[in-house]
Amino acid sequence: MDEQDEQNSAGHFLRGALWVLQAIAATALLALAGVYSGLNLAPPRGMLETVPVGYDSLQQGPGSNWWPYLAILAAAIASTVLVAYRGPFRGIGQVAGALWLLFNLHIWSSINVEGIGSSIDICGGDGCHEEVVEQVMLVLPVLAGALAMIVSGIFARWMHWGVRMAFPVAVFLGATVLQIATWDSVIVPFLGMALG
Prior knowledge:
Strand content: under 5%
Order of helices and strands: HHHHH
Number of strands: 0
Number of domains: 1
Shape: elongated
Number of helices: 5
Low-confidence stretches: 45-61, 118-125
Radius of gyration: 20 Å
Mean pLDDT: 76
Distance between the termini: 76 Å
């Protein structure tokens, strides 16, 4: 009986260590995803710098950072689900991960729009509003993925971990495809009409 208890405690320790390592990896990946998204380091299709009316348009074809960005964000979202965890706090990793992602996204988006410090203030007044709305439009797929993480973590805790892992990733990727498909034809004209 003692040998079985030792095996159970060793298995419990290893499972706990795996969950701690997964939490550390998720935290780092989510922070990196916030940096990538907030600073627009990998826009869906390379950004054009000289667009009339002051709004960015997306070129045809993804930039070189595009596939690593999608992989990092998908891995970050998926890594918030503890595999085979059946405890009372099931789903808390997704909610905490979504909040951490949103926090990082907010910080880096603010830096992207406003600059760092008073000497590098990009906006300086009325032009900020346009940049803020455009920034929100650029990060909408990430916001959709974070919302799906919260919904999965709170309302779908009873579902299999694989479904809870795949659902927010699918929402993020679907929203990204929709963003790419509608950026030039719908979003840029909307920005020009709403803010012009």
